[in-house]
Amino acid sequence: MAKDKSINHAGRAHALLSASGASRWMRCTPSARLEEGFKSESSIYAAEGTLAHEFAELALRFSQKQITEDAYASALADLRKNTLYTDDMEGHVDKYVDHVLESYAEAKGITPDALMLIEERVDLTHYIEEGFGSCDDIIIADKLLIVEDLKYGKGVKVNAEDNSQLKLYALGALRRYELHFDIDTVRMSIIQPRLDHISTWEISASDLIEWGETVVKPTAAKAYAGEGDLCAGDWCRWCKAAPKCRALSDFSISSAKMDFADQDNPKESDPSILSNTELSELYLKIPIIEIWINKVQEYMLDAAIKGKEFPDLKLVEGRSVRMWQDTSKVEEILKENGLTEEQIYTQKIQGIGAVEKVLGKPKFTELLSGVVVKPQGKPSLVHISDKREALGVASAKNDFAD
What we know:
Layout: H1 22-25, H2 31-35, H3 44-63, H4 69-80, H5 89-110, E1 115-123, E2 132-141, E3 143-150, H6 164-177, E4 183-192, E5 197-204, H7 205-225, H8 246-255, H9 276-305, H10 327-336, H11 341-344, H12 352-359, H13 361-368, H14 393-401
Parallel strand pairs: 3-4
Antiparallel strand pairs: 1-2, 2-3, 4-5
């Protein structure tokens, strides 16, 4: 990025077969063309993530002296004016920035003239028609290519293992720099600071290239042509066509057609009662069914607000909660009527993230590490492939009791 250009992530172009959407269009090849009939509407969460990425890019470019101190201060002030800015946003972004700078220091230890590429656009047209993408950071040294991605959301934990988005970014970087660096290993990381989650995975450069040639090329050709079968899965979460997708609807409805009998002690042999195996199959489909339900509700409510009418449905005002119109006026009235400050106000200590930002991590650790605890998470039923250790029955019972 030239020094006189502003940092603007929201205004970037997006490819039909984007690297960020690869987990979807590589599994459901017609979805990319199907989405073309739906308007793109950014959510508040996407806008918040965009702002966080702009803070991250600014911090990294300043650390590498790619922008002047005055330009940095000016851009920082502008970003802080955004209505989505929060006091803890920069602290979260700093965790990503620190991770990148540590990776870069490692790379420079291997190769003194190692490269750090910030928000680099990579060309993917060798594998994907009109394909390209922008990677948060790419670090290149002899024998080692590092690709890292900041994910600011805190709803879904994302892992780097076999991650299609990062693998595509790495393929683009490999093709561009393979003549300048002898790369054997590709390391990919996803940093989710608000979840305190960093996932890292490695693959050989040769295996990555083979994946690009044998998997990405033919799959992308089908997706670009809009060919193949629609396929429902958790990737539907990011599909604009999901609310009206018949494949997702059919999957969800067929999965939910099972009837549960109301018996305290059902017999496994009773054909009218679901077996434990059937329950497991249904349980694992619940996340996809929930995606479909939520997508349909969001789409129809938005359409109704914009004037669309649906048979047998009407738009009504929902329940609301009372709120103060003018808090300063409320304070004045209450004080005039003899209420004490204890009766009017409440006090609450700042959150851990806010205090850590004020003190700085070293001082925070020194003063407060002994009074910070991380409670045990509640038991959760997941697929056997999940890498977390299984809980014993006694431990699970105790957790539920708590």
